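note to self — DONT lose this again. spent like an hour looking for the file last time. sequence + predicted structure for the chain T wanted, 369 res
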Amino acid sequence: MSEIDDIDGGEAGDGLPGPSGLPEAAVAAGAACLSCGGDARGAYCSSCGQKNDDLRRSSFVLGRDFLRDTFGFDSRMWRTLGLLAASPGRVPKDYAHGRRSRFTPPVRLFLVISFLFFLTIGLTNTLFVGVEVKFRDPDPEALDRAIAEAEKAGVELSDSAKNGQCSFQGQFRFFVKEKDLENDRERLRACLGDVRDDAREVIAESEDVAVGEDEGLEAEREQAGEIVDRVFKGINWTVANPREFNDAFNDWLPRVLFFMTPVLAIILGLFLRRGVLLFDHLVLSFYTHAAGFAVIGLSLILAQFGAPYMGLAATVVMSVYYIAVLKRAYGRGWVKTVWTSIASGVLYMTVLFAILLTILTNIVWQATA
């Protein structure tokens, strides 16, 4: 009888042989490692370190185990979150120095908390960022001066511009509901059309050159006019379609924040070098970003119950928390810690805002193509 026949016809429970030729019964008994054949009477092989498990399960079980292992809140997760809140800086310091068994790994914690953060934004129907336009009555003297300067330059202003009806100021509002954005969209659309026409007229009269006399200048003038059209069209689209704008923005935001974790580690490496590895900064960065997601997410939930100034409160809490994290994690004096916190924080926010501004500009530009 062949070896295959012997396997098929063996006693119930023998099962298929693993890579080392051992049946499943031997694997379950933990007699030998599936990889190297060494002693594996415990959960892991004492020779090569591989877990004594062939992972031969159904797809349903593998998917369930993946979700449980990735997003499940076990005792380590609760312990890690509790210490991140009660003792800032202790978890990244202990984890980076080898005391890891008690804590959830930083990358896993970051993914879980960020997932819950964006889930909270979705469930609360919150816009990450919205544009609100406030119209205001202009100063009569300032309006007269503007009209006089326009007439002196030979520019004919629209009636709305002469009457001061299009004096407005735009501002970004973060973590706001769409219904809370107060925008007079019809008035804004009309004003943007008038301002756009005024801008195009300025461009057209900037150089008194006839069409064909200088084709290069005429082409540049037309291109400038098209850019003006797209800019004003983009402003109007952003105000009129806050949900579409945020959907496009939210596609980028998780990737940007994940990218910013090594950026913060590199920035800290510029200020903290002696006796500290980039690995230490990276661990601290992932844990700190996870704490930031938790603080902002909690502020969103409290805001749903009417708590005021939650954005300001979250900013203050994270600023103080960041200082406390650096103090405990690196053990430096308070003066050096505060200085490092301010310098690294300003540099981090500069990079973050530059990236976000680029993304916002690209979203608006593509929407008006």
